[in-house]
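ok so heres the complex, two chains, lmk if somethin looks off
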Amino acid sequence: MRARVLVRLKPGIMDVQGAAVKRALAGLGFSELNDLRVGKVIDIDLDDPTPEGARARVGEMCRQLLANPILEDYTIETVDDLAPRGAAR
Amino acid sequence: MRFGVVVFPGTWSDCDFHYVISEVLHQPVRYVWHRERTLNELDCVILPGGFSYGDYLRAGAVAGRSPVVEALREFVAGGGHVLGSCNGFQILCEAGLLPGVLTRNECLQYRCQSSHLVVENVDTPFTRGLRAGQVLTMPISHGEGKYYADAETLARLKQQNLVVFRYADANGRITKASNPNGSLDNIAGVVNPEGTVLGMMPHPERASEAAMGGTDGLLMFQSLLGSLVEDGSFLKR
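and the predicted structre for the whole thing:
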């Protein structure tokens, strides 16, 4: 089973990196930008046959290491039902 | 007093701490590799600055779950003292041994400069020899030193007097201009409620000899030595 974790800063936490990227894009002429925030994608391949089981284990990974709950929220997608292994890259 | 200086892959201030403890303070000190799990014979463990495990994922995140930091929990529960500076502070926060988190500097720049700190809490072994309101000068050197905690945690920090150092100007005034990284309330260092675990972004080990440009960092080491010898707490362990 493959899972994809999206880690992003919580609403209300200032994203200085996002603000810098937004300024850079505005400098390139993308003046229609209202907001931009930068997050992380973590792709995980694990030995768990069910999406529910994988989701539970990956949730535990997020709580223990992948996200810092003071700053970050996370969402978990299981991607087994997407493209076959390797083809998604 | 027996000191241990923890070395992670990517630590860079370990030799500086070792030097100050052995050559300036003349105290016994040994390096502690990050895979070690036995800290029993030590009185104070130092988590130095640097980029442990490359600061991958988040600064201090991987180190905060390493074998030596797991052992540190037991060490702290048994009354041991811990000083984390720079990356060491980030590790202590990531490990949950101190509240809050250090995140990217608001200016987005790596800041390597002298800083002034006003001493807020002198009721810790690390600061007992200082005066409340005293201004210390020490270098900072970090890209992720912006202290953040939620409103509830900040209120608890204030109520329990756990903020030890705040960034200030040379006269001890807490100003926005003297905040080098955007830290909440200019917070530069916090301590646990027991007063045994201190985390701070500045580098006391780089201000411990006249040849380094200042000796204010040494005041903290002397304070720690003095207070632990005085109350004999390190002998009881």
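quick notes: Helices of chain A lie at 16-27, 51-66. thats all i got rn
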